[in-house]
Amino acid sequence: MREITFAEATMEAMAEEMERDSRVFLMGEDIARQGGIFGQFKGLPQKFGFDRVRDTPISETAIVGAGIGAALAGMRPVVDMHFVDFITVAMDEVVNQMAKIRYMFGGQCKVPMVLRAPDGAARSAAAQHSQSLEAWFVHVPGLKVVIPSNPADAKGLLKAAIRDDNPVLYFENKDLFRMKGPVPDGEFLVPIGKANVVREGRDVTIVSYSITLHKALKAADKLAEEGIEAEVIDLRTIVPLDKETIFASVKKTKHLVIAHEATKNGGVGSEVAAVVAEEMIDYLDGPIKRVGAKFVPIPFSPALEPLMLPQIEDIVAAVKEIC
Amino acid sequence: MEFSQEQLEAFYRTMYTIRSFEEKINDLFLAGEIPGFVHLYIGEEAVATGVMANLRKTDYITSTHRGHGHTIAKGADLKRMMAEIFGKRTGYCRGKGGSMHIADFSIGMLGANGVVGGGFNLAVGAALAAKLMGTDQVAVCFFGDGASNRGTFHEGLNMAAVWKLPVVFVCENNQYASTTPYRTTTSVENIADRAIGYGIPGVVVDGNDVFAVYEAAQAAVERARSGGGPTLLEAKTYRIKGHFVGDPELYRTRQEVEEHLENDDPLKNFRRQVLAASRLSERELAEIEAQVREEIEEAVDFARKSPFPAPEELFEDLYVESGEAACGK
Q1: pLDDT of A193 over the 90 cut
Q2: DSSP code, position B64
Q3: Lower CB count within 10 Å: N or C terminus of chain A?
Q4: Burial class (CB in 10 A: 0-12, 13-18, 19+), B205
Q5: Average confidence score pLDDT of chain A
Q6: Is residue B324 part of a domain?
Q7: What gap in Å lies between CA B58 and CA B106, rounded to an integer?
Q8: What is the ipTM of this complex?
Q9: Which of 72-91 (B) contact A at CB < 8 A?
């Protein structure tokens, strides 16, 4: 199979969907003339014009708000947040408007909109350009949340998100943009709400997603050297959570570790752990462990940044504590 | 400007419907028949009426927590409005929204909004959609003087101006941001003065004169429809009732309200003008009033007799179940 980068995969998804449906358009800061700060939109305006791929003012509330308004009026907007950190500026739009409008109005309308948000700590971008904030949106009914870990899923999930009639938050890790991987030719979708068992194993389940998934796989390699066979699950979608896949794995392995780059406190790992504890506690042979970033803002210095982020060794250690 | 007999009757019918609807809501709320809390539009009827008379069914509006007047003027069904305010399943939002969240997408009413300043950019987006689809639809955003101090106002006006979108921003300056007087919160004499910061026309109009509002809105709507871009239209008006029903109104005197009611009530203004010009008679006005009162009684009756939502409806309307499925009731 051909190999392309994660960024190229998202570009293909955008181009195919814009080709297919004239209601799909894209807006955000620095996306048209500059092609996106990670190059993830390069070439799209040349193909579709500067009306359908539009540079916006630095006005996050207006960008997200206008996306919602356009969706209500029949368009299918894809809105880029530049950095997920700036979604904080548009929280009313995301939480009070985008998520709730359909329910509040009794199903009269829909908001078929995708909010793309590059996240993750990369190259000392410090506290306001490095966060992973996906857990906040687990708490808000009305949204779907997807978070791919590889080029194929990046393409398939983005296409599925654009075609979904609900508002979808699409988190894409900045360091994954350059990752190369096999992506099938032509049309394919990755269904929203389906996790992927990336590696099978009998001793412990490691639930992860996005860039940390790759650390989990490396941790699994190391554990295998010591005779511990880890099953690694890539969630791919956080809302709705694929409980079935998680439960089936936990039933088999009887041990659970959840690993992500976002802050451990109140993270997605907390939710997964709680769900498993509520419904599967009888199957567990040990405590559930969470691995995540430490409870501190992301520091600038290259000497400090790696200390606060979860590393392969942290996942290995967590597994060994319970297995 | 010359107005036809039909236009005059329509103006009065709309204004009187809003006034009577709101008075009825006031009484029903105080009688304990309406849950939650309600914000009344009494005193501001000429704004919704004068603006909406320039719009087509396919044009969009966004509204506020004080949204009953806009909804009525855009042509919504009184029965479904009343049922929604009662929390009944026959209401516009099947009882999920209530007074602060009435919407009717079939007439371009994109919803009242419980967040002050929440509607600006929804209107901007609807206008962007119209532009991208190449229709000549216009979006009108209603908001209050209080909302003009939200960041959404400034971001929305700039975006609409730089993209020359077909939006009309209608500020209903009713002198109070909830309970705080305009003068104590806002740095400019007129909200419309802020238009200069976005390079668009800013127009001040007497919001208690439906004719003046109509004419000013006509120019703004035509400008938007013909590709001229947005206008900021400020209607100076007055909120005769409190911020919400039950507001003790500690921030103003009873005398201030009485004086306004006596001298600048938009319905009284209208009556004075059409009677003095012999355009409508007392009898004609009384006929409209009688018809409206009957419609409102029918709406109340409908709401009272309608069932509440069933428990199994709690989770309905949250997600669209299938991708690209047709949506809407």
Answers
A1: yes
A2: -
A3: N
A4: buried
A5: 97
A6: no
A7: 8
A8: 0.96
A9: 91
Q: End-to-end CA distance of chain B: give it in Å, rounded.
A: 41
Instruction: Using a CB–CB cutoff of 8 Å, tell me whether B155 touches chain A.
Output: yes
Q: Is A133 exposed, middle or buried (0-12, 13-18, 19+ CB in 10 A)?
A: middle
pTM over 0.80: yes
- Strand A289-293 and strand A256-263: the pairing is parallel
- Considering CB atoms only, which of B101, B324, B325 is closest to A105? B101
Query: Are B73 and B122 contacting, i.e. CB atoms less than 8 angstroms apart?
Result: no
Is B18 inside a domain boundary?
Answer: yes
Rounded to the nearest 5°, which phi and psi values hold at B234? -110, 120
Kindly state whether residue B312 falls inside one of the protein's structural domains. Answer: no
Cross-chain Cβ contact A92/B139 below 8 Å: no
Q: How many domains does chain B have?
A: 1
> What's the CATH number where B93 sits?
3.40.50.970
When pLDDT is cut at 50, 70 and 90, the band that residue B91 belongs to is: very high
| Percent above pLDDT 90 for chain B | 96
Reported as a single tens digit per residue, the pLDDT across A18-50 is 999 999 999 999 999 999 989 999 999 999 999
Catalytic: A139?
no
DSSP class per residue in A33-69: SS--TTSTTTTHHHHHHHHHEEE--S-HHHHHHHHHH
Residue B320 falls inside a structural domain: no
Q: B153: domain range?
A: 5-304
For residue B38, pLDDT beyond 80: yes
pLDDT digits (tens, 9 = 90+) for A269-315: 999 999 999 999 999 999 999 999 999 999 999 999 999 999 999 99
